[in-house]
Amino acid sequence: MKTNKVTIRTFQSRYNTYLKLLLDLRGDIGWFFDDSHKANILTVPFILTLAAALECSLNDHLIEHFDDEFGDNSKQMLPGLMSMNFKGKLINIVPILTKYKFKLNTEHKVYALLIELIKLRNSLVHNKSDYDSHEVSLLEDEEGNVQGLQYDDLESLMEKEVDYTFGIKADVGAIHEAVETFHELFLEHYRESDFCGNELVIPLEENNGIKIVVTK
Predict the structure, then answer these.
(1) Contact yes or no for 85/64 (Cβ under 8 A)
(2) How far is CA 60 from the centre of its chain?
(3) Residues 158-161: contacts with CB within 8 Å, 24+ apart?
(4) In whole angstroms, what separates CA 10 from the centre of its chain?
(5) How distant is the alpha carbon of residue 59 from its chain centre?
């Protein structure tokens, strides 16, 4: 009897772990982000984890789709897709996964919130420090002695309350719900044979125009 070895491959979707982590974290913070110290401290970690969840989800679905469609040949195609920027993946994933039947509705509020998340993520990951400017009044007497600025004044200028949110005023809860909605309206259903789109995922119209190519 001959023994044959087979390799069983299972795709491990990591994005689900991120989504579960976010639900637990938000439950721990309090479902609505308020002005509490705990919510302020966790705002930035929550946003970065939320962005990681979305990008991981895009990557996972693209990898799985190309692997199903092209098998081992997908290894040659995927590096180009994976090197696409975050927004590019978001824009292109719907046409790619639906074989160019649908696209994202860029006028939808969910899309706007996902783009806001990408911008917040980029600003936090590529953050840079800058200078604060303060105007003070100084008095100079007839002998050239300067008065009006004491050491305590300088110390008070140096003291600054730490802003753990880095000035973020966005509705983080709404952005989280937008990521969940994107999964519910598209990623969880696009494989279904009767999927016909919705207010977020709309038909991609064919170009019926006549293209004239002039060659010399």
Answers:
(1) no
(2) 15
(3) 160/132
(4) 27
(5) 12
Say what angle helices 15-29 and 37-70 make with each other, to 10 degrees: 160
Interatomic CA distance for residues 76 and 134, integer angstroms: 56
Q: What sign has the CA pseudo-torsion 205, 65, 59, 185?
A: positive
Specify the pTM: 0.79
Residue 27: helix, strand or coil by DSSP? helix
Dist. CA 65–CA 78, nearest whole Å: 10
β-pairing, 102-104 with 201-203?
Answer: antiparallel
**Count of residues in the chain:** 216
> At how many degrees (to 10) do helices 37-70 and 109-125 cross?
110
Q: What is the mean pLDDT of residues 1-10?
A: 72
Stretch 174-188: mean pLDDT: 95
